[in-house]
């Protein structure tokens, strides 16, 4: 069974992590939980408070994770603090390096930029974040016209908030097949993906 971890932190944008969580956990549910274990993790396992106040308890602290196959990096105002924490960035960089693929949503791209994964690479982010991204990764190639883009062989970046659902369904299809992705989109009644088929 493959393992997918979603990093959460104070001031994370709710749909940035909840959208991918829904896609991948429903995909797991529809395959009788035989393909994928989906969980959240934080800098530690303490309760976090999202943007606009929802409280969420991560399943694990980052120090408890030996490995994972897939990694989701959501955004939100709290990503500014994440990239100022050198110890946390070091741990996240190791997880990114060792993952089969990593995706960011919205300003979660800041984490990929700060750890060097977007240097000279195309990237998407929230439309209000492109300017600040230029300060972090001046040689990155912004793609504001796209919903998501492949930044390198195992890094994907999505535009703002709801774009994480689009990228999650795409990566569910790429990783586990179109049949499961279609079943998941139908269960979620997510018409944009269904209309693209």
UniProtKB/TrEMBL annotation:
Domain (DJ-1/PfpI) ranges: 3-173
Gene3D superfamilies noted in UniProt: 3.40.50.880
InterPro entries (alphabetical): Class_I_gatase-like, DJ-1/PfpI, INH-QAR
Protein name (database record): DJ-1/PfpI family protein
Signal sequence bounds: none
Species of origin: Algoriphagus alkaliphilus
Taxonomic path: Bacteria, Pseudomonadati, Bacteroidota, Cytophagia, Cytophagales
GO biological process, one term: regulation of DNA-templated transcription
């Amino acid at each position: 069974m493959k393992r997918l971890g979603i990093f959460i932190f104070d001031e994370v944008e709710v749909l940035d992590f909840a959208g991918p969580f829904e896609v991948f956990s429903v995909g797991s549910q529809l395959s009788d939980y035989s393909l994928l274990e989906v969980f959240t993790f934080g800098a530690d396992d303490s309760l976090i408070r999202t943007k606009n106040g929802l409280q969420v308890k991560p399943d694990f602290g980052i120090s408890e994770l030996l490995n994972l196959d897939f990694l989701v990096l959501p955004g939100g105002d709290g990503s500014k603090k994440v990239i100022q924490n050198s110890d946390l960035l070091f741990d996240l960089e190791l997880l990114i390096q060792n993952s089969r693929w990593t995706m960011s949503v919205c300003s979660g791209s800041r984490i990929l930029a700060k750890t060097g994964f977007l240097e000279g690479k195309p990237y998407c982010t929230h439309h209000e974040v492109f300017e600040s991204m230029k300060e972090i990764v001046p040689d990155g190639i912004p793609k504001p016209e796209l919903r998501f883009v492949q930044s390198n062989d195992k890094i994907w970046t999505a535009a703002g908030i709801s774009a994480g659902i689009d990228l999650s369904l795409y990566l569910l299809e790429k990783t586990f097949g179109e049949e499961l992705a279609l079943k998941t989109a139908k269960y979620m009644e997510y018409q944009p993906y269904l209309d693209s088929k």
